[in-house]
Structure formats: C-alpha cells, structure tokens
Design brief:
- By secondary structure, this protein is mainly alpha-helical.
- It contains 47 helices and 7 strands.
- Strands 2-3-4-1-5 form a 5-stranded parallel beta sheet, with helices on both faces. Strands 6-7 form a two-stranded antiparallel sheet.
- Helix 6 links the parallel strand 3 and strand 4.
- It starts with 8 loop residues before the first helix and ends in a 5-residue tail after the last helix.
Length: about 950
C-alpha cells in the first residue's frame, strides 16, 4: 500500500468485506465520501487491484462535472471496454444514443437536459441487467467523483442493484458530499442497508503526515518537519504531495520550515477547481480577508445565499484549506487569486471594502481592501483611509499608515482634504525620518497660510520649522493661524497653535511671541478643548521651569505623576521626555533610567524611531551621570544610528553634548559623534540646547589643552543664559566650568568670584553642581580651607548617584591630606579614588598647583600623570617623612632625632628612597621629588 493510504487500512478493509459479500452472491453498493484530495481515488485504485487479483472483473469510470447534464454519459464511459460482450454493449449504446439525441432537441427548446423518457430509461436498465447477468465472473463497478455523474446513469446502476439482490455485483461510488448537487445520490434512489454501506475517508492525522513525508524526505526530516507540514496542509494528502514536491531537493538539515511554492499552489488550485464555482468564489473572498467573517457577511461578499455560503465554507474546511475561518497559508491566498486579472482583483477588493463599510468593520480592515484595490471609487473612502492611518499610528504600524495616506492623496481632489492628508503624512513620516517629513513642509506651510489646515494638523508645519531651526517662518504661520482661529472661534485650532507658541517661546527665547486673548495662567492650568494640546503646553511649562529654577519637589511630583498617568504616544511624547529630564536633573537617576528603558522598548515596538532616539539620548545622559561615560557614548551612538544627524535638527545638541562630556573624561573619540558634530545647525545656538553644547564643547577643548577656546565657550554659554533670563546653574553650570579654565590660566581671583556666586545660586539642594563648585573653589583656597571644602563636597556627593564626581573630590582630598602630613590616610584616599574612576574608564589627574603665571602655553603644557602612576606613591609613609626632612637640609642624625629612630634606620630609608627614585646621592633628591611633584600636579579639573 502506498504511504498516502497508510491510514486507509480500515476503509480498504470495509471495501474488501463488501467484496467478500459480493462473492457470496449478494449485490452491494459502497459510497465512499470525503473531501477532494483526501485519497479516494487512490483507495479506489488500490481496491481495483485487489479485485483483479481475486478473480473478478472491474469496470471503472470517472464522472465529470461538464458531462453532468448528458444523460447516460457516465454509463457510456463505463461500457466503453472490451470486457463486455459486443452484443449487449451495442444494445446499451443504442439507448445512450437515443437519450442523447433527445438531449439536443430539449437543449434547443430550453427544457431539462438531465432527464430521459421512461421507455428510454427502461430500455437502458434492461440492457445493463443483461450485461451484469451475462458476466462470467463477479463484477465490480467503480465510479470516481460520482457526485458529478448524471442522474440517469446513477439511477440505472441503483435499479440494477435492487433488481439483482443475489447477483455477484458490487458498485463503489466515490463522492464529495458537500457540493452544490448534494442531492445527486439521493436522486439516484440507492437501495437501503444492508445493500448500501457508507465509508468515510477523513484527512490524514499528524502521524499520517509524518509517514507520507518520511517516504519522500526520510524519517529524520519527517519527524522534524511534520508539524509544519500538517499546519500548512491540514492533513490533505494532495496538498501534502505538492508541498513535498516543493521541498524534495531543497529541505536543509537545519531548517525547521517548509518551502511553500508552486507544487503546493498547483495542488491547492486542483482541489478548489474540482468543486463547484461557488466554492472558488467563496475562497477568493476569504483570500483577501484578514479576519474570518460571519456567514451572513460572507454571503454578501460572494453574492450567494447564506446556505450556499455555509456549504462552501464546510467544503473548504473539510478539505483542510481553512484554519480559523481563513485560508491556512499566504501561498494558498496567492494561489486562489492567481487566476484573476488585476482588474478583477481590484473589483473584488473594492466590493469587499464596500460590504465591510456597510457592515461596520474597522477602518483598518476596510483600508486594507482599498489599498489592495489601489483605487478609490467613493468619497467615503478618504475619511476611512484617514481614520485607518490614525489607528495604525496608534498601533505602531507606520508604513501601513503612510500607505493609506499616499493612496488618499493620490485619488482625492478636494484641496482642504489634500492639505489634511499632507499634514498627516508629515506627522507619520516624522516618526521615522524627520528630514523626509521636513521636505514636505514648504507645501504644507502654503496650505496653512491659505487656511486649509485646522485642529491638530495646523501645527505640523510650525513644529517642523522649529525643529529644523527656522523660527521666523514658524512665527509667521503661528500669527496667521491665530488670527484665523480667533476670528472663527475655532477653539481646537487655537488650542493647538497656543501649545506650539508656548514651545517656541521656551525653545527660542529671543523670538518670544505673546499669544493674543489668553491669560498665561489659564494656558497652563486647564486642559481646554484639546487634551493633546494641553499636555504639550504642560511639557513646555515644565521645560521652562527646569531651565529657570531647576526641579524642586513640586516639579518632581508633577513629572512622576505624568510618567505614571500617560502612555507614550504622539500627544504625550514631549511631556514624558521632559518629565524624564526633570528626574535626571533632580538626581533621581535610577528612577529615570527605569522609565527611559521602558519607553525605548515601547518606541521600538511602535516603530517610533524619533522617540526611541530621543530617549536613547536621555539614557546616555543618565549613564554619564551614573559614572559610566563609555556606556553613555554607546547610547549616543545608538541614538545617532537610529536617526541620522540631518534628522535631529536643533535637538542634535542633546546626544552630542553628552558625548563631548564623556569624551572629555575618557579621552576617546567616536567617529559617529565627530560626524554629527559637523552637522550641528547654527540655529542651535539660539536655543537652550546651544548653552548645553557650548559647555560640553568647552570641556572637550579643556581636555585637549585648548584652554582659551574652552573659556570662550563657557563664557558664551553664560552670556546666552543671562540674556535669555535662564541663568540657572542646575541646568548649565557654566561658572564652575569657566572657573576651571581660569584656574588653568592662573586667573584665580576671577575664578573665585564665579565659584562663590555659583555656590550662592545653587546650594546643597542640588548636590552634584554644589559639590563640583566647592571642589573647584578649593583649588583657589588656602590649605586649611581646601580640606573643609573638599570634605563638604565629598559628604554632599554621598547623597546622590555621582560616583565620578565623588572620585574626583576624594582624589583632591587625598592630596590635601598628604600635604597636611596625613600620608597613610591620603594614600588610601588616592587609591580609592583612582579605583573608582578606573572602573568607569577614567583616569584622574591631580589638582592643579596654585599657579601664578598667565601664560596659556604653560597651562597647555600640563599633562595628566603617566601610565606608571605617581613616582612618590612608591615611597612608604616613613620614607616620605625621611625624604621631606632630607630635602629640608637636615642631617641624618638630625632626622633620626626628629623622628625618634636610629641613624642606621635613616640611612636604610635613604638607600631605599634612592633606589625607588633611581638616584644615587642626596643632592639629586630635591630634583627627583620636584619632578615627581610636577608629574603629580599636572592636568585639569573634571
């Protein structure tokens, strides 16, 4: 038995049992039912071989749907064999000819063609009786696809069986039960049981699928791939053969999936086309759907009655083609639609869209049909495409949203709707590529000036122009839109324009625009008619507070409330990003990091590249503040990889400034950051981000020894802060940065003035900035004052997550302790500080000496300690004390008396000191210690 029939033992045994009854002198009829492709033909062929091998005659024929209206057409095929004597066969064929001659006349007269005259039917029955009775051996008649046979032939066979109950005759009828001619066999007036038996042939089980595959692909491959084979074919042997054909030479040993291609498609087409046309019609409508419809909707789609549609569904389901009410595989959908012309398919999907619209399907579902048709036939299609685009954006399906909007723009002829569609395209494109969206802003600005935009769409050109550094044009559109909105009392449009105005005022402080007819307090305190516009205004207000005063408890509470309350979407992204930065500046770094990592994941799921990149930039700042500059640079590089530099606009200052700070600490460079730095727009220096960038660039200059250039950038940042009224050291501590450069240049008094003022402005409530300022102030203070300032700075930094700043403060404190003679304590402090810094990939230079020169070249010549570490760290505390006294001019005996040790002990210490410092005599000791001191004191502040 073939592998396809491996699960057909029971049905075959049933036929063989009937054959044994036939041999015993009992006429029988077997009706074998099952869907197309389930193996009925193979079962019949297998049984025919068994009949021939056991001394019986087998007459076989296959019915055809195209001959269903031809009376006795099936019997004519059956009798066309030399196994039947010529005389009886000739008489039977005369009755066939008579019946078919009458057929022609009836066809021309428009009457029934599937019926015959009683005398013709009786004559044919007698002729068939003679053939059966004259048979010399038992006779088995097998009819494949009996459901497509003509009724007179089937009735004639049934008549013979009933008349010859004791004749050795067996009739086997293969049929598919759920077809349009479901009453065919009932019309044939089959005899009752036990003369007739029904045999059901189901689809293959998963094990049966594996057995079939094993024969073609080997057992090992079959065991690995059987699950996929069953999932694709549903156990239909015909489909499985096609699938195996596709993979006979292409299955790879490590692959876990089938290649579903032409072999499967051809088998599926064969299955569907062997059913009635209504089945194909239903299959084609199912092929363009993504959700299983109800029978009532399917009937409307296919233009059939509900009963016929339900029957067609049952056929497809029993054939194994359907799963969950839809075609099992994408290749099945392609195969079913392959016979249609592009025009026919467009008509199909347009009709489907119309039916769905009438039945209240979702906009996205309808839009998929419109896109498939690639045409718009009715005005209602444009609003549906708009609604679908909005829904798709909410689900993160950006490309689908853009497809909807492109089709709407292509076929719409209404100028106002075209402007709205363009604005929606800009918004959707902005998520993944702001620069591509920006290229449409010119036309969109013209639409805005012409009054064709309203509601949330009116700010699309304004926001894009602000982002890319064109505030003057944004202001023009704002003023023009405000006049129109206020004149028409369009509160929604006015609300959105006002929100963009609030952002323009905070992002471009020198371009401040006063919104007409609205109190500022009302602007930020009420939700108004547009919640989205309100959250946008709220974000602008929070951003301004961060710039002007820094985050306090109320600001932090508001930020936390926003983060808990709002999900990330187009309307809340600005508020959530600003809230995260509020937590960052409030030193709630771990809390901010948790939110940022969640938003990055969500933005990635929503295909919102811009949001992901902005939160990556925020993540970079968090990592930098947490003392991991290398991780900060990696996050910046990720942000720049997500969003090319040209798409960042003025927001490019966020990642670049963080990367510059990190580079100043580690001394490393990043090609991606260098390239981005060359793309920074000049307009950024009209924004608060420009202050941030100037300070970061200044620290990079300082690390590279360009002290004057660094000072220029620090002072420029301060000048902008003062001019814009946002001089807040928590946001941009430019004074301490400038003081560091001034110390390097020897201008200590100017540095002290700046640092004293910054201490007064920020206070301990902002520990990072406050402690950093104290640390730099210590560099221009007396030794005793240094100890107090650095101790206070270190204590302050213990209250926040600032490991690098703490390492710097402890390192400076260690040096002060050594200068005060606390060698052991100072050495431990230095080692602890260096270890903390090196864990972050940062090497700490020691504090600068109290220089008095103003020569920039002298400052530029200062360099960090060498890789081998300070020379004097090799000396023990005792050796250090001996060395210092020896340098002071004391003799060995005087040193021994001062330290209460023997002269021999002093000599031993000096011997070890000479060896460690690589010198030979006391006269070289002063120079060696001075060189070590210069090595220790080189470098700049961090």
């Amino acid at each position: 038995m073939s592998s396809v029939l491996s699960e057909r033992v029971r049905p075959l045994n049933a036929l063989q049992d009937l054959f044994e009854e036939c041999l015993a002198g009992n006429s029988r009829v077997a009706v074998v039912s099952g869907p197309v492709g389930c193996g009925k033909t193979e079962l019949l062929n297998e049984f025919a071989a068994h009949v021939d091998a056991n001394g019986a005659d087998y007459l076989g024929a296959t019915a055809s749907r195209v001959e269903q209206a031809v009376p006795f057409g099936l019997l004519a095929h059956l009798l066309h064999t030399t196994q039947i004597p010529s005389g009886p066969r000739a008489r039977a064929m005369r009755w066939v000819a008579e019946a078919q001659s009458v057929l022609t006349t009836r066809f021309l007269q428009g009457g029934r063609t599937d019926d015959v005259a009683p005398q013709t039917f009786h004559g044919m029955c007698m002729a068939l009786l003679d053939i059966v009775e004259q048979a010399r051996r038992p006779l088995v008649i097998g009819i494949d696809d009996a459901h497509s046979g003509d009724t007179p032939s089937l009735r004639c066979l049934s008549y013979v069986v009933r008349r010859l109950r004791s004749q050795k005759l067996l009739v086997v009828l293969n049929e598919s039960p759920h077809s349009r001619r479901i009453a065919t066999l009932s019309e044939a007036e089959l005899p009752p049981e036990p003369q007739v038996r029904f045999v059901r042939l189901p689809l293959l089980s998963p094990q049966g699928v594996e057995d079939v595959m094993a024969e073609e692909l080997g057992r090992a491959q079959a065991q690995r791939l059987a699950a996929d084979g069953y999932a694709v074919t549903g156990g239909n042997p015909l489909l499985l053969r096609g699938l195996v054909k596709d993979n006979r030479s292409t299955v790879e040993s490590q692959s876990s999936h089938f290649r579903v291609a032409d072999g499967f498609s051809q088998a599926l087409i064969s299955c569907v086309f062997r059913y009635e046309p209504e089945v194909l019609q239903v299959a084609r409508h199912l092929a363009v759907l993504e959700e299983a419809p109800s029978v009532a909707v399917l009937a409307q789609l296919a233009g059939l009655d509900a009963e016929t549609s339900a029957q067609a569904l049952d056929i497809l389901r029993e054939t194994g083609i359907l799963s969950g009410g839809l075609l099992r595989h994408a290749q099945a959908r392609s195969a079913v639609l392959s016979g249609m012309t592009p025009e026919e398919r467009a008509d199909l999907q347009t009709h489907t869209a119309n039916v769905m619209f009438k039945n209240g399907f979702s906009a996205i579902t309808i839009a998929r049909q419109i896109l498939g048709a690639d045409r718009v036939d009715t005005d209602c299609a444009i609003p549906v495409l708009h609604e679908a685009a909005e829904a798709a954006l909410a689900e993160g399906e950006v490309e689908f949203a853009l497809d909807c909007l492109r089709v709407a723009l292509q076929y719409d002829t209404d100028e106002r709707r075209q402007a709205v569609t363009t604005a929606m395209i800009v918004r959707a494109t902005w998520r993944t590529d702001p620069y591509a969206a920006y290229r449409r802003v010119g036309g969109l600005a013209a639409d805005s000036r012409a009054g064709r935009l309203s509601g949330r769409h009116v700010t699309a050109p304004v926001d894009a122009l602000m982002w890319f550094g064109r505030p003057d044009e944004a202001i023009e559109i704002l003023k023009n839109g405000a006049e129109g909105a206020l004149a028409t009392h369009d509160l929604v449009t006015s609300s959105h324009l006002e929100a963009s105005c609030a952002w323009l005022n905070v992002v471009y402080p020198e371009r401040s625009v006063e919104w007409p007819g609205r109190e500022a307090e009302e602007t930020t305190a009420t939700g108004g008619v547009s919640p989205e516009a309100w959250t946008k205004r709220r974000a602008a207000a929070m951003f301004r507070r961060n710039l002007t005063a820094g985050p306090d408890a109320a600001s932090v509470g508001e930020a936390q409330q926003a983060l808990r309350h709002y999900a990330l979407n187009e309307g809340t992204a600005a508020l959530l990003l600003t809230s995260v930065h509020t937590l960052i500046h409030a030193e709630r770094l771990q809390e901010a990091r948790q939110w940022v990592e969640g938003f990055i994941s969500q933005a990635r799921r929503d295909s919102a590249v811009v949001w992901e990149a902005l939160f990556c930039a925020a993540h970079a700042e968090i990592r930098l503040r947490q003392g991991d500059p290398r991780a900060a640079v990696q996050q910046v590089e990720q942000a720049l990889a997500l969003l090319p530099a040209r798409s960042w606009g003025v927001m490019l200052g966020l990642p670049v400034s963080t990367a510059l700070h990190a580079s100043a600490l580690t001394g490393s460079t990043s090609p991606a950051v260098d390239e981005a730095q060359s793309s920074i727009p000049q307009a950024i220096f009209e924004t608060p981000l420009g202050m941030r960038l100037l300070r970061a660039r200044g620290h990079k200059y300082l690390a590279d020894g360009q002290v004057s250039a660094a000072l220029d950038d620090f002072l420029a940042a301060g000048e902008l802060a003062g001019r814009w009224g946002i001089d807040n050291p928590v946001a941009v501590p430019w004074r301490s940065s400038a003081a560091e450069a001034l110390i390097r240049l020897g201008h200590h008094e100017r540095a002290r003035l700046l640092l004293t003022e910054q201490v007064r402005m920020c206070g301990p409530a902002h520990p990072r900035v406050y402690a950093g300022t104290l640390r730099k102030l210590a560099a221009v203070s007396s030794l005793d004052e240094r100890l107090k300032l650095l101790t206070k700075a270190a204590e302050c930094l213990q209250t926040c997550e600032a490991p690098l700043e703490l390492a710097f403060a402890l390192h400076d404190l260690g040096w002060v302790q050594q200068e005060l003679g606390q060698y052991s304590k100072g050495r431990l402090m230095l080692r602890r500080a260096r270890l903390m810094a090196e864990q972050s990939g940062v090497r700490i230079p020691s504090p600068a000496p109290l220089a008095t020169d103003t020569d920039e070249e002298a400052a530029r010549g200062a360099r960090p300690a060498t890789q081998n570490g300070p020379l004097m760290e090799a000396l023990s505390d005792a050796e250090m004390r001996v060395a210092q006294l020896a340098v002071g001019g004391l003799s060995n005996r005087q040193i021994a008396g001062r330290l209460f040790v023997t002269v021999s002990t002093v000599e031993q210490h000096l011997t070890r000191i000479y060896r460690k410092l690589n010198i030979k005599r006391r006269t070289e000791l002063v120079g060696a210690l001075q060189a070590a001191g210069r090595q220790e004191h080189g470098g700049s502040f961090r």
